Write a sequence for this structure.
């Protein structure tokens, strides 16, 4: 059974640019959640998508957005990148009822220079 | 790659010792709790979970204890091995939602 796949693994972007990250959930999982991980702030929830709809949202600025496709794959986008956006971005998928079966991908390491 | 453990409390133990990692949670409505292990360059990996109708749950070499009165979780690792060295996070969930709130994490260092 394939796990959660995130692409790319590493990205280097320049301040002001925008970036799109991709997440393919475990087959049959309909919920995809995104988290930002930094040494100072730990793991912080960005948003959750279920059946192509944003169901929950964390406390991040509007520069952070996402979407989910009909096959449950999800993308997140960060526009007008800032140095502070450098982080490990983690995606997790689950069946969508509570946190049962919550499984994380290996993340995308974004560095903004 | 950059470590996620730069600002974390650290627990250093000798191989073969028992380790106890503690976590305080914040939401009284949380009814599901998970411990994750994160190694460098990887995403969090599920270790063990517990629901709020239980006080204790055991897995292979790991035990989770839940004290709802003081909103406290602990993870006990028996006969700690060097391969257990990682950052450990507790996470809480209100089962009405599919989101997790994570604790700050503890770095476990196991010396041979």
């Amino acid at each position: 059974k394939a796990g959660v796949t995130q692409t790319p693994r590493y990205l280097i972007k320049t301040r002001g640019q925008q970036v799109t990250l991709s997440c393919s959930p475990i087959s049959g999982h309909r919920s995809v959640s995104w988290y930002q991980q930094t040494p100072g702030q730990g793991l912080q929830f960005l948003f959750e998508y279920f059946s192509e709809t944003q169901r929950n949202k964390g406390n991040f600025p509007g520069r952070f957005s996402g979407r989910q496709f009909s096959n449950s794959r999800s993308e997140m986008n960060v526009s007008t990148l800032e140095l502070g956006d450098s982080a490990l971005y983690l995606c997790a998928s689950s069946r969508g009822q509570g946190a049962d079966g919550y499984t994380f991908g290996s993340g995308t390491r974004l560095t903004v220079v | 790659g950059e470590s996620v453990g730069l600002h974390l409390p650290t627990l250093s133990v000798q191989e073969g010792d028992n380790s106890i990692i503690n976590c305080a949670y914040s939401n009284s409505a949380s009814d599901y709790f998970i411990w994750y292990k994160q190694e460098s360059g990887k995403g969090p990996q599920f270790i063990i979970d517990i629901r709020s109708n239980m006080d204790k749950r055991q897995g292979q070499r790991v035990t989770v204890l839940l004290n709802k009165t003081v909103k406290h979780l602990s993870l006990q690792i028996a006969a700690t091995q060097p391969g257990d060295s990682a950052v450990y996070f507790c996470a809480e969930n209100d089962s009405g939602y599919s989101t997790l709130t994570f604790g700050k994490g503890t770095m476990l260092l196991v010396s041979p």
Remarks:
- The two ends of chain B are 24 Å apart (CA to CA).
- Chain B touches chain A at residues 1-7, 32, 34, 36, 41-46, 89, 91, 93, 95-105 (CB under 8 Å).
